[in-house]
Amino acid sequence: MAATTVDDLYEQTIKSWPTSDRLRLIEKIVHDLSINATAEHDRSHIDWMSLRGVAPHLLAGEDAQTWVSQTRQEADSRHAHTDRPPP
């Protein structure tokens, strides 16, 4: 059986349904889409506070801001010795 396009499905099947059935179909589709959208949003939301303390040993007790500043200074120093500007 050949794949049916949405337009074909509508024209050949759904268009002839009573208005009440078509409205019920719309309601079901909207409900399904809203559930999927909510689930996708929930997966994309990260509770950053839940990561607190997960890997405290990575900085070996060094302050995070100190580490960031030092890393940036080192990167700037490396870029100063090249012909291209830093990104």
How far is the N terminus from the C terminus?
54 Å
If helices are DSSP runs of H or I spanning 4 or more residues, what is the number of helices?
3
Oligomer: single chain
Structural class: mainly alpha
Question: Strand fraction band?
Answer: under 5%
Mean pLDDT: 80
Give, in order, the helices and strands. HHH
Rounded Rg? 28 Å
Helix content: 55-70%
Which shape, going by the Cα principal axes? elongated
Low-confidence spans: none
Number of E strands:
0
Described by strand count, sense and barrel closure, the largest sheet is: none
Kindly summarize this structure in a few lines.
Helix content is 57%, strand content 0%. The chain is mainly alpha-helical and 87 residues long.
What's the arrangement of secondary structure elements?
Elements: H1 6-12, H2 19-44, H3 64-80
Structure commentary:
- With 87 residues, the chain is mainly α.
- Helices cover 57% and strands 0% of the residues.
- The radius of gyration is 28 Å and the shape is elongated.
- The two termini are 54 Å apart.
- The model has no long low-confidence stretch (mean pLDDT 80).
